[in-house]
Write a structure and sequence with these properties.
Belongs to the metallo-beta-lactamase superfamily. Glyoxalase II family. The protein is an alpha/beta fold. Helices cover 36% and strands 25% of the residues. It has a six-stranded mixed β-sheet with strand order 1-2-3-4-5-6, covered by helices on one side. A six-stranded mixed β-sheet has the order 7-8-9-10-13-14.
Length: 253
């Protein structure tokens, strides 16, 4: 399986997934139609299916035009705000798309309807998990978000993480405030800096790497708990309280 990044807006990535059928692709979170249409034309591909992680416009805005041009199934969470869905899925569902079986995880926190799609080796997690960070908590609760992240932490370390935004460098700048002595984080931040200086993509990451450098997956590590406590004055030693403290810290940084 090959995955291609299609750039959209200022920092979005729409993912085009080649599976067993060389003529069609799966498109993930098409916030804009035009970049997808251009990529399809340049690569002589058509759309088999569209996967949607949540209802935000920068993940759904291009769907209607794409479907009008090439009718295909649209699979996503059960949310009436996503008016183009042909199939809704939720926690525990498995869907077969273009010959590939995908497990669906409910991953609320950024939004209440957020889901992620997983097939061995590949995770498409929208705005739940970023490289070095996570999405803002617009609709969910700290308990929901930490439960979602704990769910993703259980996946194999070699899982490649395909999130929807090029936020890595900014995320690592904050992560270094939380864990300034994290040697793996320091090294990765230098690598990302070099990539971005060349205007190169920093994704996909891997879950193994994120477990080593991402404070939003490391909320039970002593160094992260200590940093959260120092920042807030005091913090309860629970995953949701540590997560909420560092999420608020980043939001207000």
């Amino acid at each position: 399986m090959r995955v291609h990044a299609i750039e959209a807006f200022d920092d979005n990535y729409i993912w085009a997934i080649e599976t067993s059928n060389n003529d069609t692709v799966i498109i993930v979170d098409p916030g804009e139609a035009k970049p997808v249409q251009q990529w399809l034309k340049q690569n002589n591909k058509s759309i088999d299916s569209i996967l949607v992680t949540h209802h935000h416009y920068d993940h759904t805005g291009g769907i209607a035009e794409l479907v009008q041009e090439t009718p295909c199934q649209v699979i996503g969470p059960n949310n009436p705000e996503i008016k183009t869905l042909t199939k809704t899925v939720s926690e525990g569902d498995t869907v077969t798309v273009a010959g590939t079986s995908w497990q669906v995880f409910s991953t609320p926190g950024h939004t209440l309807d957020h889901i992620s799609f997983y097939t061995p080796g590949f995770l498409f997690c929208g705005d739940t998990l970023f490289s070095g960070g996570c999405g803002r908590m617009f609709e969910g609760t700290p308990e929901q978000f930490t439960h979602s992240l704990l769910k993703l932490r259980k996946l194999p370390g070699e899982t490649r993480v395909f999130c929807a935004h090029e936020y890595t460098q900014a995320n690592l700048s904050f992560a270094l405030k939380v864990e300034p002595n994290n040697a793996v984080l320091q090294s990765y931040a230098e690598k990302v800096k070099m990539l971005r200086e060349q205007d190169l993509i920093t994704l996909p990451s891997t879950l193994q790497l994120e477990l080593a450098i991402n404070p939003f997956l490391r909320f039970d590590q002593k160094s992260v708990i200590a940093a959260a406590s120092e920042h807030a004055g005091s913090v309860k030693n629970t995953p949701e309280d540590v997560f909420y403290t560092i999420r608020q810290w980043k939001d207000n940084a």
